[in-house]
Design a protein that fits this description.
Blueprint (H helix, E strand, L loop, with lengths): L1 H26 L37 H6 L3 E4 L2 E2 L5 E2 L2 E4 L14
């Protein structure tokens, strides 16, 4: 009878190990299947889209320093050197509009 118990215990341990091994295998990352090479096919020509609307050119673009200073809507940006050592040329740009003030809340 002791022999039957040993066989039963060994069977139970084998089953437990198989279940633990199966759970560990299920958690392992799955390898990505290799993609089959695609056959080269020509795609139909894409339809032409309407061109995007272009912004109007800035009135300050291309002005020299004196002309930029004379225009109240423009400001002159000095030439600088970036941290990477790239030289930036001086240019004229449109001044930014001041932020709009929110309406004051009504007092009671």
């Amino acid at each position: 009878m002791t022999r039957d118990r040993w066989i039963l215990k060994l069977s139970a341990m084998g089953l437990a190990l198989a279940l633990i091994g199966g759970a560990a295998h299920a958690q392992a990352p799955k390898a990505e299947p290799k993609a089959a090479p695609k056959a080269e096919t020509k795609a139909p020509p894409a339809e032409k889209k309407a061109p995007a609307k272009k912004k109007a050119a800035s009135p300050c673009q291309g002005l020299d320093e004196k002309a930029c200073g004379a225009n109240t809507g423009c400001s002159w940006i000095k030439a600088t050197k970036t941290k990477a050592g790239v030289d930036r040329k001086a240019y004229c740009r449109l001044k930014t509009a001041p932020p709009k003030k929110a309406a004051a809340p009504a007092k009671k």
